[in-house]
């Protein structure tokens, strides 16, 4: 018989890992935007991904990576231009 608490802890750990990855990704992008802005450059959303150690895991799918945080945020992002 499967331990219900074990399954719940495992799910929380998975969510924690996904949330941590989202936080790291989002912070990496914010840091890059601040640097780009201070240098008078246009925002380049792909630049922080160029040297990211997680690139093989996310394959530049930043929107899906950040999804756990975006879903819970009161700030909404519209990708339609």
Describe the structure in your own words.
The chain is an all-alpha fold and 81 residues long. It has one domain (4-72). 67% of the residues lie in helices and 0% in strands. The chain contains four helices and no strands. It has helices at 4-38, 47-50, 55-58, 62-72. The model has no long low-confidence stretch (mean pLDDT 82).
Q: What are the salient characteristics of this protein?
A:
mainly alpha; 0% strand
Could you state the order of secondary-structure elements as H and E? HHHH
* Structural class determined from secondary elements: mainly alpha
The Rg value, from CA coordinates, equals 16 Å
Number of strands: 0
As an assembly, this protein is single chain
DSSP helical segment count: 4
- Low-pLDDT runs: none
Percent range for helical residues? 55-70%
Q: Count up the domains.
A: 1
Main sheet properties: none
Summed over residues and divided by their number, the pLDDT gives a mean of 82
Q: End-to-end span in angstroms?
A: 52 Å
Shape: globular
Beta-strand percentage? Answer: under 5%
Topology (elements, then pairings):
Blueprint lengths: L3 H35 L8 H4 L4 H4 L3 H11 L9
In short:
By secondary structure, the protein is mainly alpha-helical. It contains four helices and no strands.
